[in-house]
Amino acid sequence: MHTEMRPFLKELVTLPDLPSHGQPVRDRIRREWEPLVNEIRISRLGNLHGVKYGSGPSPRCQVLVVTHLDAPRMLVSEIAEGFLRLQGTGGLDPRVLVGLPVVVHGHRDLLGTIVAGPDLGLSPARKGTPPRANLLVDVGLPSAQVTRYVRSGDMISLALAPVDLGEDRLACQSLSSRACIVALTVCLVELQERHHLWDIAAVVTTHEGERYGAAPTSAYVLQPDVAIALGAADDQVPATSEGQGLTLGNGPANGWGPSIHPGIHREIQRAAEREGLQLEDEIMPLDSRTVVERLQTVGDGIPTGAMNIPLRYLGTSVEVVALSDIRRTGRVLASLVSGLKPDFREALSWDCADDS
Amino acid sequence: MTAEHMPSATPSAEQMRLIKRLTEAVAISGNEGAVRAIVREQVEPYVDELRVDTLGNLLIRCKGRSSNGVRVMLAAHMDEVGLMVTGAADDGTLRCKPVGWVDAAQFLGKPVWIGRHRLPGVVGAPPTPGSAAGASANPAETMQIRIDIGAMSKEEAAGKVRLGEQVVFATELTRLGPMMRAKALDDRLGIAILIEIVQCPPAEIDLLAAFTVQEEIGLRGAEVAAHRMEPDLAIAIDCAPARDLPTRDGEENTRYSTRLGGGPAVYVADRLTICDPRIVRLLTETAEQQGIPYQLRQPGEGGTDAGAIHLSRAGVPSVSVSVPTRYTHSPASYASIADWRATVRLLHAAVRRLGSSLLEDSPWQH
């Protein structure tokens, strides 16, 4: 990639996800991908599709790798005496909200802070997480100016700067989506040097925060032969066969569960082995924490796999990721794509797990 | 008093830089060195006497013209609330405990600076199943605050951070329209104000400036500073809580304490001190004469260095003058630039009207 991985990731986490403002983050990704793919377009619902052709004979098979670009965002529900009340928490853990810096995207971008209403004093008897209804944003301006610049329905995004934690780790908001986007970019860069027969469709979706995100619509349009969902999983939530969380710096994990086609699981495992890596299996009995459940039922059904990058403090303003995990994820994906034979899809059988 | 000396109502770029340096310095109670160094550098050329006492207070005297001038103590505290590292866990995170009156839950999800050289860290919030349902419970009681510095093991963490190291919110000062947002405005604003008073001291009185330590853990520095300085009267310069926000139910907020933009808050009483009415009157009359906005802080909880100073030796008539500050002891406190400047102006003018005659009347006759 023309941009180094760490600065690119830092740039992505500081760009907001604003459907109403032309998606600055999607534009930035598009710029990075344009030289790496053969086709690039925006779908009807605003998803970014980048397709890099393989060298196999036409019609070629296609593998879809999909992740999302959502970042925590809240809405202004009401303006009260120059303070803004919040609609929702943008998927953020409510414990972390008070004291966070934000940008209010009104007629003009205004800096502010999420604060607790006045009945939460310093008294230890009353301390703790304030009830959500009592959260406000203080932009530090007189009431008349606030109503001039802000309307209810305006978007609010977090504005914490990324923090380098030693050589390999980074802490910031929005890493759960942005780390996956960088991993997918690493994959596209790797594929410039690797021979691959299949097409790869790299897709970044929107609306993931809404219960049923827009990923299936991209799968519907692209009609892939195989789909891989890329996500992030909290390293402190039990996920492996040993009941442990994933290990930061040892990722990504290879998903296993009813949404995962065993043949894809095995192919991911082989791709990792070709890179000299041993992936942990993440057990996904119900919820993969990716969009894979929504992908497998698109059209006549799609053989799917899922990979999660381990992340610490998921859903907070200080998610922590290991850059080495992002790099590995990109390499495993590239290895997977370049390893796909023309007849892979035809040979794929739900019973192949028992073959070995 | 001459008008040309009156401090400016708008801060100079240099004054803004000083506030930024002061609020971004890392100095929790008992570890005030970073702020002490800035204060010393700022005041040294202007003072007659300067000493650092047993507890770490930086004590200054600017002698008045007459040998029997009234001894006026102005105090502002250098320390801030924060955390102290108490150990490293097996996973490489740091355990810590609060120093001063800070709700440890405020640290959840925030970046921090560790030590004077500001090693970066973050305080995560580990997943708690059903945490949304229990959102009103105090998370600090149900979980340990742990700092993540990217260390992979206890040994690596211990090699990077020593036990007892101080931890503060990692907040850089930002200007938001007419406001400043920063950590530790309480009481670095008071420190900046006192520096400015010392740089242009009144001629007729003995000015005793105390840059105190350990206010946040029990007014300890002020207690010994007042004992040594033996002032005739004292003014504590601090930050007053402003809770001037709309209430949840839309009712009028009658317990706002102070309001941002309303000018310096003159205390009549707080939990620790009944302020001397003669000095309160002098301050309010000065403000009215000079056309400086001011407000009376609603009596209530809290206290300042005046709480210790007024009980020193045989007693010291005292008052507090504070800059109204929202969200004190949090990662992002707010103060109005106009209030800060008005506080400097009020104190600058008021100390020039102080004389021994002020204390001749019984305070309780009026």
- Strand order within the widest beta sheet of chain A: 1-2-12-3-13-16-14-15
CA gyration radius of chain A, whole angstroms: 21 Å
Largest interface: A-B, 62 and 60 residues
CATH class wording of the largest domain in chain A: Alpha Beta
- The backbone outline of chain A, from C-alpha atoms, is globular
Number of domains of chain B: 2
Specify the CATH architecture of the largest domain in chain B: 3-Layer(aba) Sandwich
What is the fold named in CATH at topology level of the largest domain in chain A? Aminopeptidase
Domains of chain A (count): 2
Question: Which spans of chain A of ≥5 residues are poorly predicted at pLDDT below 50?
Answer: 120-126
- Which CATH top level class of the largest domain in chain B fits? Alpha Beta
Report, as a whole number of angstroms, the end-to-end distance of chain B. 27 Å
Average pLDDT confidence of chain A is: 89
Shape of chain B: globular
What does this structure look like?
The complex is a heterodimer of chains A (356) and B (366). Chain A has 356 residues and is of the alpha+beta class. Chain A folds into 2 domains: 5-71 and 173-354, Aminopeptidase (3-Layer(aba) Sandwich), CATH 3.40.630; 74-157, Elongation Factor Tu (Ef-tu), domain 3 (Beta Barrel). Helix content of chain A is 25%, strand content 26%. Chain A is built from 9 helices and 17 strands. Chain A has an 8-stranded mixed β-sheet with strand order 1-2-12-3-13-16-14-15, sandwiched between helices. A 6-stranded antiparallel β-barrel of chain A has the order 4-5-8-7-6-9. Chain A has a 3-stranded antiparallel β-sheet with strand order 10-11-17. In chain A, strand 4 and strand 5 (83-87) form a beta hairpin. Chain A is globular and about 65 Å long. The relative contact order of chain A is 0.18. Mean pLDDT of chain A is 89; it is low at 120-126. Chain B is α+β, with helices and mostly antiparallel strands. Chain B folds into 2 domains: 3-80 and 183-359, Aminopeptidase; 82-169, Peptidase M42, domain 2 (Elongation Factor Tu (Ef-tu), domain 3). Helices cover 25% and strands 23% of the residues of chain B. Chain B is built from 9 helices and 17 strands. In chain B, strands 1, 2, 3, 10, 11, 12, 13, 14, 15, 16 and 17 form an 11-stranded mixed β-sheet that branches. In chain B, a hairpin with a 5-residue loop joins strand 1 and strand 2. In chain B, helix 7 (277-290) crosses helix 9 (337-351). The longest helix of chain B has 15 residues, at 185-199. Residues 130-137 of chain B have low confidence and may be disordered.
